[in-house]
Design brief:
Blueprint: H1 8-16, E1 23-30, E2 59-65, E3 69-74, E4 81-85, E5 89-94, E6 97-103, E7 116-121, E8 127-133, E9 139-146, E10 151-160, E11 172-174, E12 180-184, E13 206-210, E14 235-237, E15 245-248, E16 255-259, E17 265-271, E18 285-286, E19 289-290, E20 305-308, E21 317-322, E22 334-339, E23 344-349, E24 357-361, E25 365-370, E26 376-380, E27 384-389
Antiparallel strand pairs: 1-2, 2-27, 3-4, 4-5, 5-6, 7-8, 8-9, 9-10, 11-12, 12-13, 13-14, 15-16, 16-17, 17-20, 18-19, 21-22, 22-23, 23-24, 25-26, 26-27
Length: 391
């Protein structure tokens, strides 16, 4: 049985990787090496010429070093970038200076798929949100008031009991609508033993959508299942195994979801802006292939990118962002994603996502980030945080 991200390979990474104490470092150049190609298959079919104009290899410039960095965020009107370590600490990096903002290291669980997993700032910049698992394995989405220096007035927005230690999801992101989207895995175990992916009575195996500025939060009136009897009204999307990372396209508002697979297929799902209520198929399907033929998945939506587990050493998809920056013109309009074990990073044109091109490599790729200027970053569980640059 294969676990979600982090995978069994990540167990070794978490126990064997020894990183220096968190500190900003002088930027250095990291030249990606070539890796075995990974075949991507998807709908719609690829068209000739997709990917033309892309740089042959991107450059990865190290800006900082941390202990198992797993999540990245920026804040409105703030020049700092914020890095979350799986061990429970959130840091602000501004130039050569690093400042610890929140320390949950005494509270987070230490399992290989647990800990501090996600970070996001409210669009106003006034509130900070972290996704983390406590000593009992329970998922918390916790809010702090934040003035750019001090995090205070801590409160839990929501919590979710986890039946197993794996498949915790962890992604937090504010959408173009100003609401908070929360990724939760199917609860763990192999093959979704509780059938949570297809159940609308649980948050597990879902992406939730809420307004966190409530008591404790508010469910938006246009959530797709708000008026569905028996369904949890916070649900935005379902049929997901472990949506470790997802992101919104800054230009279109579309949602791109990397859902970590079981034994055979990794997948990326694409959701047009505002198209909530979609079923992404797990556990009736893994990728675009049948998984459990005894499970019905009504109106399941096929992924736009799939690749086979094991090709080039692959194991867990890491969703990135659609590039909308200005420094790498040939990359504009391409979705970046990668694989934790293989380390390769690929670019897929948004209008033809099956046509992927390998553009670099980051060992033990754990996450991507997007700056206020729309330039991109890549995080390695080994410790480095890289800015993505032109060759």
């Amino acid at each position: 049985m294969r676990l979600a991200l982090p995978t069994a390979v990540l167990v070794t990474a978490l126990t064997a990787c020894s990183a220096a104490p968190p500190a900003a470092v002088t930027p250095v150049q990291a030249t990606p090496s070539s890796t075995p190609s990974v075949t991507a298959s998807a709908m719609p079919r690829a068209s000739a010429g997709a990917g033309e104009g892309l740089p042959a290899k991107l450059r990865f410039t190290q800006i900082a070093q941390f202990d198992k960095p797993v999540a990245f965020a920026v804040r409105k009107g703030d020049d700092a970038v914020y890095i979350a370590e799986q061990g429970g600490r959130l840091h602000a990096v501004k130039g050569a200076r690093t400042t610890m903002i929140v320390d949950l290291s005494a509270e987070v669980s230490k399992g290989n798929e647990q800990g501090l997993l996600g970070v996001a700032f409210h669009p106003s910049g006034k509130w900070l949100y972290l996704d983390w698992t406590d000593a009992e394995g329970t998922t918390h989405v916790t809010e702090w008031a934040f003035d750019g220096t001090t995090a205070k007035q801590r409160r839990d927005v929501l919590t979710q009991d986890q039946p197993y230690a794996n498949h915790n999801g962890g992604q937090l992101a504010f959408g173009p609508d100003g609401y908070l989207y929360i990724g939760l895995g199917d609860g763990g175990g192999g093959g979704d033993p509780q059938g949570n992916g297809q159940k609308l009575t649980t948050w597990l195996g879902k992406i939730l959508r809420i307004d966190p500025r409530g008591e404790p939060y508010v469910v938006p009136e246009d959530n797709p299942f708000k008026d569905t009897r028996g369904a949890r009204p916070e649900i935005w999307a379902y049929g997901l195994r472990n949506p470790w990372r997802f992101s919104f396209d800054k230009e279109t508002g579309d949602l791109w979801i990397g859902d970590v697979g079981q034994d055979s297929w990794e997948e990326v799902d694409h959701e047009p802006r505002g198209r909530g209520g979609r079923n992404y198929g797990w556990n009736a399907f893994e990728g675009d292939r049948p998984f459990d033929q005894g499970v019905e998945a009504e109106a399941a939506v096929e992924p736009v990118i799939t690749y086979q587990l094991g090709e080039g050493g692959s194991c867990s998809v890491i969703a990135g962002y659609v590039y909308r920056g200005t420094k790498i013109p040939g990359l504009r309009g391409h979705f970046l994603y990668g694989d934790f074990c293989a380390g390769w990073i690929r670019a897929a044109p948004v209008d033809d996502p099956a046509r992927t091109v390998e553009v670099g490599k980051v060992e033990q790729l754990s996450s991507f980030g997007q700056g206020n200027d729309s330039e991109l970053y890549a995080l390695s569980l080994q410790g480095p945080v890289y800015r993505v640059d032109a060759p």
